[in-house]
Amino acid sequence: MQNQIGTLIRTTLLVLMLAATVAAGPQLRISHGNFTLPCYGAVKTYSIYADSLAGNISSFKLVIAVNENSFAVISTEPGDFVKSCNWEYFTTRLIHGDFPNHPEYNTATTGLLEITGFASATQAGAPTCFGGADALELAKVKLLVGYQGHWGHWAPAECAFQPLSFFWRGCTDNRLLSRDGDTVFTASTVRDYYDLPGDTSLYVFPGFGAPGNACVAEPETTMVSLLGAVNSGFELMCGEELCTGDINLNGFPYESADLVMYSNYFTIGLPAFMPYPEGSIAQSDINHDGIPLSVADMVYMSRIIIGDIAAFSRPNPLSTNSVLLTLDRRRTGVEASLTTDAPLAAAYLRLTSTDGRTFSRPDLDGLDNTAAAGKIGDTTTVLWFHQDGSTALPSGTRRLFELEADHIQVAELTAVDQFGRTLAAKVVENSLPTTMSLAQNYPNPFNP
Q: What string of DSSP letters covers 92-150?
């Protein structure tokens, strides 16, 4: 309840500040449109605007600091102003580095997103306009937000604010050039979206501080330091307000379509998550154990959809039961059988061949209707799973399939019970002799 009240207060303040920002006079700002986020792994778009400029412009170079430990840049596109005016040149690049001199970034890994645009890069370029509007959208930045790199895997980043801030390496960053080239628009002040007093000693130039009068005007150029730079950012709600399960990223978690897409991932890989695989991955930690893209998550999702388990309660991630996969190597190939202590809601197997071959469903003789076979790279995948949550493989020992191949190896074996818990798995190979030979008895037991 407290988190909901806090969110309402912050959202109200945001609306008021946004209205004030638009009417604040000449400025360079990052939009505040997506302040609070309802889900982990949301794909959000932020725009960079130039407001109320005293004249037209012909070029710009923007530099935005991004915390790569908490979100990723998916794409950067020209803004509506640049596209509608048919500007000739627009390019971006992400520069990796460490820029800790900011109260919100601390020592987080920070990259610099550099965005450059020219109305005409050659004499042949013929842009149709150079400005004339109150709010010129220069660029759109699409971000994947909501997950943090943590202990070797991605874990949810909740109850945290992540800034998007302008950064100056020198006088040529975050400035705009007039159409005639005689005026440079640069920033004299910088403030954050909340506009609260803080430790301004860290806002230095070069760095996160505006250059102001630190940059001397170029010969025959009027330096206009009248722009205010306005940073932005987004806040991730706390755990009980967040959601997972929206695999297809349509805004509605825990649908049958999400489960179908999830199960397809285990047979064909990341192409099942197009067009935004990063967002689907971030939504995939259904049981909240910090490990995305697991069979246990898929089973947990199926039980949420049919209504017999809660969406956000966290199960014990490990089971006391176990499974044993036995590979009996024969002259004609390999026969696989599985022994399990408990009924399985899902089992997942990836096979590799020494000669790089992959196998189709007809090659895996004996697969029943609960199994789906596919290929990911040079591996063969098999998934036993019922989308209605029923048992895929009963307890006991059963033959899975027989495969005509010289040699195969198990790259992955995962088994999950109906509580979404992962079972300990073991693979045993039994080989029959294919040739006979008589070797010398060594060492000689009679030789002291």
A: EEEEEE----STTTTT--EEEEEEEEES-SSTT---S-S--SSEEEEEEEEEEESEEEE
